[in-house]
Amino acid sequence: METRWSIWTQHGENEDFGSTVVWFEIDPAASSLLQWGEILPPGGQFVDYIYNGAISSDRKVFGASASFGSGMAIGFNTSNATSYVTDEVVSQVGSDPLSTYTDVAPSASAFQQLCNTPRNPDDCPWGDYSGASPDPAGTRGAVWFTNAWVDSQGSWATQNWEAVVGNVAEYPVPTANSYPEGIAKAGRNLWFTELDGSKIGKVTPAGAFTEYLLPGGAGPLHITPGPDGNLWFTELFANKIGKMTPAGALTEYPVPTAASGPWNITAGPDGNLWFTENYANKVAKVTTGGAFTEFAVPTSGAAPAGITTGPDHNLWVTEAGAHKIAKVTTSGVFTEYLIPTPTGASAITAGPDGNLWFTESADKIGKVTTGGAFTEYPIPTPASDPIAITAGPDGNVWFNENGANQIGKVTASGVFFEYPIPTLGSEPDEGITAGPDGNIWFTEYGANHVGKVVIH
What we know:
CATH topology of the largest domain: Methylamine Dehydrogenase, Chain H
Distance between the termini: 4 Å
Mean pLDDT: 90
Number of domains: 2
CATH class of the largest domain: Mainly Beta
Helix content: under 10%
Radius of gyration: 26 Å
């Protein structure tokens, strides 16, 4: 949410190629210009005229509640001597670059109204003025527009539409087909695993990558910062736990149980690293020196997956095969709680409200107190397939919607917001975390990207 007041405005301006729309963000308190820009023809497309602009922030105010506000969108017309009038829109979040053009409504024919107004015989009356206003009731940062276009009879007509502001930025991973999975914040950077690339990646908040090669066939899956200042990660294919220094120096520790399926990993409350053995049905801990202790899950075939440290200084684990959430003490004592909906639970995180939050394959987000009381919230989008989950710096819980190609946010009271990922089929899968820049970062397994959601 924005913490400053600003005014957005725009005007038309003549250019060598015809005309353009110039926009400004102004700080009224300081009487200063925060940023400005202009709408230029897209690459490879000759446009004589860009005009009839309207601009608005996506600040939502509904009754006493308010949200969003760091994004804006501009609607406008384009045309030239050989192209019909088209309604277009671009958007921006923060000071990121403008999005590419989105064609909203290409006209059906040329404008054919006669130019014979009494004031000037060369005056051609052109449609409604354009307008823009933030959506007061949506679950996303969005702006409503009105503008003119030309119908099939050659007369102007009014077009109304809503534009969702581009909250999501994406950064291609340098190694092709690396299949990025887990992601974690460490220091000023994000660190992530490349499952098939057999690498550990580092990306700055500005999108600059560094990659560190692991021995072939490692299959790094999940990653977490350790209490020793190093990065710790599971090697699914190699059946090892990896440790990497911030400079990229690697140490590997074989898991005692063969083919254990080391899955998720977290820093424990006791100064050790704790992880799940999905195939071996165990929860284990490893010291920073590489000494292992393994604990069998009481329920057979539980398939432990997600793990996190709770506010009660215990470990909390999802049992994907048993429809349970388990509490594990640092001495390895289990207490298991049956989820009300018989569902596979994937990931789990400590929420900002003192509860544990987890994803359910039944398209729900679950919440469980440290005493084992459950609340479940259905996700608005069907077949969303939520997987990874994290607590955000904004007091909400964020999660990946693998099946819906979205990032979701849910408030402590169960109100949802969803943010589409620009790349179709991106498959946000096992990785999501709060970044050092105050935004939400996630991995796109299918698109080979690391993405971020800019928090308003």
